[in-house]
Amino acid sequence: MIESRYLMAKISAGQKQRQSSFGFLMQVIARRIDATMKEELAKIDVDVKLFANLMVLSDRDGITQKELGHLLEFPDYFTSRNVDALIDAGLAERRPDPNSRRSVLVFLTDKGRKKATELPRVIQKVNSQFLEPLKSSEKKAIIQLLHKVGGIPEGGDPNL
Amino acid sequence: MIESRYLMAKISAGQKQRQSSFGFLMQVIARRIDATMKEELAKIDVDVKLFANLMVLSDRDGITQKELGHLLEFPDYFTSRNVDALIDAGLAERRPDPNSRRSVLVFLTDKGRKKATELPRVIQKVNSQFLEPLKSSEKKAIIQLLHKVGGIPEGGDPNL
DNA sequence: CAAGTTTAATTGCGTTTGCAACTGATTTCA
DNA sequence: TGAAATCAGTTGCAAACGCAATTAAACTTG
């Protein structure tokens, strides 16, 4: 962020307000999580830029680029280049969509599927590292509140 | 962020886990906040990239570039270019540091100071927009929890 | 069914980023 | 003191980004 991770809202007016700004807190913590993920993923030789794509594909192999991008809220051009990069890294391949000649299906290669199996461990590790200061009930609470803020339906394992 | 804001943790394993990943939620919401800030700041003709710098300078005018970068956790080269951009926009100026010929002090111009006064309103607006789905008690709770996660001491006005 | 519209995906190109190298000033300390 | 190390700041350059335009396919509708 710069790595626009660097970014924005680290701020507001005085010291006090700055520290309590929701946007400020979100940005700062998100950047830190991103940096930590980058480090952890480097250990297993995965580019953080491709990580998200790998995770989605491991769950839903053979979707179109459009769908992949949609699930990640990425613009099309970005998805297009991400898939290029996945292919360059030997992690995925494009195949024609039997249902439409203008869309493309993306599949993980064996190598890609193998890499993908290593990812949940990393996510789990980083998430619990960041949530460590919270009590168990607070962990549940913050995830619930974030879901509410994001308008994202809940469900699933809060440990991840 | 993509604007390495686009990035990372949108993820985990299955659909269920993905939706609950703390890192995933943080990244997605942080990116949305960033995009919204960008839009809102465009309305008052402020580049989101310079926004953070403006806020810090409005609070602590006349600091060195080094200090400015440190407060924002930005690398030196980035601060250097940000100050260039602030100057190009007529919002700030460099002055020699009387205490050291190798460092530089950064001051807001009148125009810069004037712009800075418009920023808290925008921050306020975007924050409350994102927190809108929450009840008042929940707003307090999420900010408190984020402080705890970030290891950032609390204090200040939760509306900002 | 043909013209117009929308859609998935890609790409050209100017801008921004990140790293490393560089300059000049200051400190260290043998 | 003066050679080496450190420090603030800048910059060259390759890579990555982001937008807008493009291509080719698939709807829509009169």
TrEMBL record, chains A, B:
Record key words, sorted = DNA-binding, Transcription, Transcription regulation
What protein name is recorded for this chain? Transcriptional regulator, MarR family
| Taxonomic source organism | Parasphingorhabdus marina DSM 22363
- A GO molecular-function descriptor: DNA-binding transcription factor activity
Where does the signal peptide begin and end?
none
Q: Which Pfam families match?
A: MarR_2 (PF12802)
Which part of the chain is the HTH marR-type domain?
19-151
* SUPFAM superfamilies on file: Winged helix' DNA-binding domain
